[in-house]
Specification:
This protein starts with 20 loop residues before the first strand and ends in a 6-residue tail after the last strand. Helix content is 2%, strand content 50%. By secondary structure, the protein is mostly beta strands. It contains 1 helix and 10 strands, in the order E-E-E-E-H-E-E-E-E-E-E. The chain has a 10-stranded antiparallel β-barrel.
Length: 204
């Protein structure tokens, strides 16, 4: 499925261009066996005019017919290329950056490309006091992520590490999430197939 890259897109977001917008669809918890619960999900990747994407996911537990039963999970976060921060970058906090992005052209961004793809990072916050920092790769319409660090509040449930995979297949976004609860034995946690709702940035 072809899509147009916005002409005003921050250069660092070009590798993520196929993700930008909103997606909706259904999935299954666990391995997706007949007895595993169903869920509905809305995912949005929003271009806010900065060298990162704003990420939000909302999932609802459903019955087999797709009727929403109750909220399952909400996630928020930020996705970006993995690189050293420069003086031109904004932060920390509300410290403003330069009016022009640190990487100003496609050629600047291409210098970060490796033979495997672009290295990326994703910071995702879950309910229940869990914050994940993922490192991984984006190679065309494929993403692989693995937790580099994980922060749990003192009252959070046991959670040790996870991996996430995303891929664009025939215009649909397929993803899988594997989780370890403490012994580094990753097990299937959830997976889904999502259809694009809009290619535009998520509503403010």
């Amino acid at each position: 499925m072809a899509f147009d890259i916005p002409t005003d897109l921050t250069p660092e977001l070009v590798p993520f261009a196929w993700l930008i917008g909103s997606w909706e669809g259904t999935g299954r918890l666990g391995e997706g066996e007949e007895s595993d619960p169903h869920f509905w999900q809305h995912v949005a990747f929003r271009d806010v005019g900065a060298p990162y994407l704003e990420y939000r996911s909302e999932a609802w537990l459903t019955d087999v017919d797709g009727t929403k039963l109750r909220i399952l999970s909400v996630e928020n976060g930020f996705w970006a290329l993995e690189r050293q921060q420069q003086d031109a970058d904004a932060g920390p906090g509300m410290t403003p950056g330069d009016i022009f992005p640190a990487l100003r052209s496609a050629d600047d961004v291409q210098k970060l490309h490796t033979k495997e793809g672009f290295k990326i990072q994703a910071h995702i916050v879950q309910p229940g006091g869990i914050s994940e920092l993922y490192y991984g790769l984006i190679a065309g319409p494929r993403i692989q992520l693995a937790t580099e660090a994980l922060l749990r509040s003192k009252n959070a449930k046991q959670y040790a590490s996870s991996t996430r995979m995303y891929g664009l297949v025939n215009g649909n976004l397929f993803w899988r999430w594997d989780v370890s609860l403490g012994n580094n034995d990753l097990k299937a946690h959830a997976s889904a197939a999502l259809k694009r709702v809009t290619a535009e940035a998520m509503e403010s």
